[in-house]
Design goal:
alpha/beta, 62 residues, 3 strands, 32% helix
């Protein structure tokens, strides 16, 4: 099984993805990287076109 994992080029996103990409974590799947800006990832996530990704939200005003 292959999972498409999306992340932005931001260091915190890349850090979360690194261990999977470098096979440092044993997983029952292979990983395909999908690297784009966070706005594009948000749009893709809304439509369910990627297996795994983080999303970015704007905090509610207080």
């Amino acid at each position: 099984m292959e999972l498409i994992i999306g992340h932005s080029p931001d260091p915190d996103d890349a850090f979360m993805f690194y261990a999977l990409k470098r096979d440092l974590v044993k997983a029952p799947f292979t990983v395909r990287e999908f690297l784009v800006d966070i706005e594009t990832l948000n749009k893709i996530a809304i439509h369910g076109r990627i297996d795994v990704t983080a999303v970015s939200t704007t905090p509610w005003p207080t």
